Amino acid sequence: MQLGLGSYAYRWSIGIREQVPPRPMTPFDVLNAAQGLGLDLVQYADNMPLDRLPPADLERLATTARDKGITLEVGTQCFNAEEVARYLGICRVIDSRIMRVALDAADSRVPVPELAAELRPLVEDAKSAGIRIAIENHFNYPSPRMVELLDTVDDPALGVCLDVANSICAGEWPEETITMLAPYAINLHLKDYVIEPDPYGVGFRIRGVPLGEGRANIPWILDQIPDRAEGMSVILEHWLPLGATLEETMAQEQPWLERTVAAARNFVGGR
């Protein structure tokens, strides 16, 4: 298993929606951060869309990564033909073997046979380029439906980017999600969380914590990954909540990430 840095680990320093710092991190900054953490892989997700980089900068990013000995992976939010074609071109430039996409609530309303028919030509295009498409279990796409979709397409170039906590939003406990999706996993997003009762008894909230400090049973999760996925990338993320100010929150990202990387090395070491 190869540990990597996901761009969502710097959600606040990159900027999201109206929370944008005066000097957002760039793809080159994330690359340097991975090197500083001793990681040799970076996965750029949809919070840092590489299709917005000028072609010369994309080439420079690929060259810089190669010079640093860092592997790059790419991710996008949707999978329409135009966007997939654009990102397959990006994969070729940066030598990404994985293209992560996400399905969500709107996709869950599309009948599986129709969605599979849309996916098949895209998977063929990816396969011809030596690239696999990894569909992430995002917040509102149920895992049983994901399994049905993968079984319908039935192509080794299509698998799961398994996020260990996202599907709580879809009404699944992580153990349930992981049991269903791990056999299809070709990419893993690792994070941790706690569930805290409201002090007044008004329900509870789910809050992110650095890896190894919450409820996620990381050794069990790693044990569920099939042997055929040996060498797969394990992308480190976290759910650091927004604090009183954006600046205060940004200041916590690096310490959280350092604790997460240290824990991940202990969990993954020897596997």
Describe the structure.
- This protein has 271 residues and is α/β, with parallel strands linked by helices.
- The protein has a single domain (2-268), classed as TIM Barrel (Alpha-Beta Barrel), CATH 3.20.20.
- Helices cover 41% and strands 20% of the residues.
- Strands 1-2-3-4-5-6-7-10 form an 8-stranded parallel β-barrel, surrounded by 6 helices.
- A hairpin with a 6-residue loop joins β8 (192-197) and β9 (204-209).
- The mean pLDDT is 92.
Order of helices and strands: EHHEHEHEHHEHEHEEEHEH
Helix fraction?
Answer: 40-55%
The description of the largest β-sheet is:
8 strands, parallel, barrel
> Regarding quaternary structure, how should these chains be classified?
single chain
CATH class: Alpha Beta
Number of helices: 10
Rg over CA atoms: 18 Å
Average pLDDT value? 92
**Residues in β-strands, percent:** 15-25%
Q: In CATH terms, what is the fold-level topology?
A: TIM Barrel
Give the N-to-C terminal Cα separation: 7 Å
From the helix content, strand content and strand pairing, which structural class follows? Answer: alpha/beta
Low-confidence parts: none
Number of strand segments: 10
- According to CATH, the homologous superfamily is Divalent-metal-dependent TIM barrel enzymes
Strand arrangement in the largest pleated sheet: 1-2-3-4-5-6-7-10
Please name the CATH architecture: Alpha-Beta Barrel
How many separate domains? 1
How would you sum up the global shape? globular
